[in-house]
What we know:
Number of domains: 1
Helix content: 25-40%
CATH topology: Trna Endonuclease, Chain: A, domain 1
Shape: globular
Number of helices: 3
Structural class: alpha+beta
Amino acid sequence: MNIKNTYHNKTVGQFGESAAEDYLISKGYKIIGKNVKIGYSELDIISVIDNKTVFVEVKTRNDTEYFNEAEFSINKNKLKSLKRGIVKYSILEKINLNNIRLDLIVLCLDNFNKPLKLKHYRDIF
């Protein structure tokens, strides 16, 4: 494992999650949780809009060449893990499972960790 790459990836991810949070707030979402660990799952952002709880997975890249690949990094196992975490969180917090949604935000950052591109996919499952 390359410690430098691991640190870099974590830092890029943190900038991406912060940019995604700013974006969501600008669109009227209320942030109620960030980086919530539940079992083996981590829920990047938990928000509420229009009385619906929205779980947001954030994928960040710092190279436009790999921007479109970020959305494909949500594979079957990742979705299964997210679903498990979302259901556990919803049960613990007594959230109606019919009133939840999973979104994906994909970002590309420039060399100064400012967002160049952002795509917001709503209701991915």
